[in-house]
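Dear colleagues,

For the upcoming journal club I promised to circulate an example of a predicted protein-ligand complex. I picked one with pyridoxal-5'-phosphate because it came up in last month's discussion. The inputs are reproduced below in full, followed by the predicted structure.
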Amino acid sequence: MINISQPSINDEETKAVKKVLESGMLAQGPVVKKLEEEFAKYIGVKYAVAVSSGTAAIHAGLSALGVGPGDEVITTPFTFVATANPILMLGAKVVFADINEEDFNINPSEVKKKITKRTKAVIPVDLFGQVYDFKRIKKLADKNSLKILEDACQAIGASRDGKKAGRFADVAAFSLYATKNIMCGEGGMIVTNDEAIYKTSKKLRHHGRCAVNGYTNIGYNYRMTDLAAAIAREQLKKIDGFSKKREENAKKLTKGLSNIGGLILPKTKKDSVHAFNHYTVRITDDFKIKRDELLAFLRKKGINCGVYYDKPLHLQPLFKKMGYKEGDFPVAEKAAKEVLSIPVHPMVSTKDIKYIIESIREYGK
Ligand SMILES: *Cc1c(COP(=O)(O)O)cnc(C)c1O
């Protein structure tokens, strides 16, 4: 079976975990601190705060931006639910804005239409591993005094204009969940250049405790363990190799799958490096069989593709009951019907790629 994702773990990770186990310091400790320094350096920011998940990073990051009850936060309906849930967790209102056809990321013109007096922040997502249109969103944010939280959970290793994903907002959130480009089972990172956001994030991670005044605000237990951090540190050392392999695999897929009727390949923006957490094609009506039939066919052949996402968030019961309905975000709805993500991770071999291309080519000339 060629899986849609598979972590790459070797002796280095095993040894690092063993060392932590033997140290007796299993919870948050010196290894987490080291990881934070290395992560901040890799992204090119002043501060990184390690947390227990990407969701925790989004929640704490948004909270540090001051989002609360009565606020509106604009985000994309074409993302994982964990982008939007933290908005609800803070008692704020989720306001969706439709995406671009070509890169699946939030469309700045649609964001502009959704800004009201109550809009506090925007959460653009670097979907599948490509940085969003940060220039136009930043302009809107500056003009309307909005904060930006970049959901970079799928984009570690990506860059745009020579800057790494995670640097295109007031605060950014990463995930180290098992399916991401680097991982430690479960984990997350908050990154920022803003000292106040950094300090608040650290407080929120540890029960709202302030070193000077004790418990000053509501807080959480969002700490990362040294065990997880030990894995993440080893993975971070390997990231450039992982990224290169994903890029090579993506190139091979693009070469092998070009000029098939009804199959649209992912495009990388000229100024961007795509992290290819997912290599996502569109299977349109012009393709010989339906997307779901191709998905089932490939699975039967041992190629485990994925559909991210088969239903945009505004059509999920949780958000639908807030008044959203079919037709509200036509570009996202069309994408949900057409997308298919093909295995691209570093463990996919050249032989696997060839087999994937041949299998899809059974339906295309
Ligand atoms: C994975 C992911 C998250 C959540 O990260 P967890 O570590 O699973 O909590 C949030 N947003 C996006 C876009 C993701 O892909």
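Two points we might discuss: The pocket of pyridoxal-5'-phosphate is lined by residues 53-55, 79-80, 82-83, 125, 151, 153-154, 175, 177, 188 (CB under 6 Å). The CA atoms of residues 68 and 156 lie 28 Å apart.

See you all on Thursday,
B. R.
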